[in-house]
Amino acid sequence: MSFYKFVLVPFIILLTIGCCVGRPLPSKLADSTKQPLQTSRPYNIAHRGSNGEFPEETAAAYMRAIEEGADFIETDILATKDGVLICSHDVTLGDRTNIANFSQFADRKRTCEVQYVNMTDWFVVDFTLEELKLLGVNQRFSFRDQQYNGKFPIITFEEYISIALDAKRVVGIYPEIKNPVFINQRVKWSDGKKFEDKFVETLKKYGYKGSYGSKEWLKQPAFIQSFAPSSLTYVANLTDLPKVFLIDDVTIRTEDTNQTYYELTSDSYLDFIKNYVIGIGPWKDTVVTTKNNYLDEVTDLVAKAHARGLQVHPYTFRNENSFLHFDFHQDPYVEYDYWINKIGVDGLFTDFTGSLHNFQEKTSPLSKKLI
């Protein structure tokens, strides 16, 4: 067993269990001592942290991603019943946590409509932060390491920010305004503000500001992302931080405008949204279509985005054979090479931060060690 297994993993477990319940706010190490964000190659975006190794969107997953060389740590932001912003991809709790083990919450299960689909489950909006902190997060995929199930709590948006700011080098954040229609319908703040307002207020509280590439931005880099275009146009009036429009399967309708992503990848729509965003974050299969698990046709989406000065950060890159198309011969490095050097993307959302970092260290001119 490696040194990492003997020493680092137990250390992370102890640290995250101790620090994520009432974790202190960021100490913000002296900026002059931090190695700056690299900007000379596509961004390594830790999708929900290093969730190929640890349960997603936990302190352990984010700390591991930073150790492995992530440029940005990515998260999804939702809100609790008492209006606290938390890191969670799902508005439901049944699959992602061990809530089924808590008999006191059995009667909280109910049916809600989420993005045009009725779902029966426990919902984050029905629980206070104090209640959610009782739960442990589980690994999403059964074929990944299950030993940490239930050992790490849900963390808040502020705790996530503190992890980035406390890193020994500049590490960016990449939070998503998740399910804003659902949240705004069910969570109300006493000051009458919206989910998006609270989201931006949190970023401002911790000093996140500045347009892409500015001195302020490079000091504390952040991208704001959402599948809901109306949320992005709304927050464009609240902050000059760069925004990324996420794009799902072209047949899916947006939560807020009821348009398909096919409509929202048209030339006319990209001409509109480019005034509000700096990039798009498309599902990989909207960039290169597939057939029988082989790559099929390269669409013109990247070319259209680049022609409008937009960056392209596709999702999600995963090491397991079940996610790798046959063209890549079960080798994630071959997949990275294809997307970086043939498709020409500007950033990649990956579940395995270390793999992407190792690939780029071996193949790009930027070889300085980040850790």
Describe this structure in words.
Helix 2 packs parallel to helix 4. The strands form 4 sheets. Strands 1, 2, 3, 6 and 13 form a 5-stranded mixed β-sheet that branches. Strands 7-8-9-12 form a 4-stranded parallel β-sheet. A two-stranded antiparallel ribbon has the order 4-5. The chain starts with a helix and ends in an 8-residue tail after the last helix. It has 371 residues and is of the alpha/beta class. A hairpin with a 2-residue loop joins strand 10 and strand 11. The protein has 13 helices and 13 strands.
List the helices and strands and how they pair.
Elements: H1 3-19, E1 43-46, H2 59-68, E2 72-79, E3 85-87, E4 110-114, E5 117-121, H3 129-132, H4 157-165, E6 172-177, H5 180-186, H6 195-205, H7 215-219, E7 224-226, H8 229-235, E8 243-247, H9 267-273, E9 279-282, H10 284-287, E10 288-291, E11 294-298, H11 301-307, E12 311-312, H12 332-343, E13 347-350, H13 353-363
Parallel strand pairs: 1-2, 1-13, 2-6, 7-8, 8-9, 9-12
Antiparallel strand pairs: 2-3, 4-5, 10-11
Helix pairs in contact: 2-4
Summarize the structure.
This protein has 371 residues and is α/β, with parallel strands linked by helices. Helices cover 30% and strands 16% of the residues.
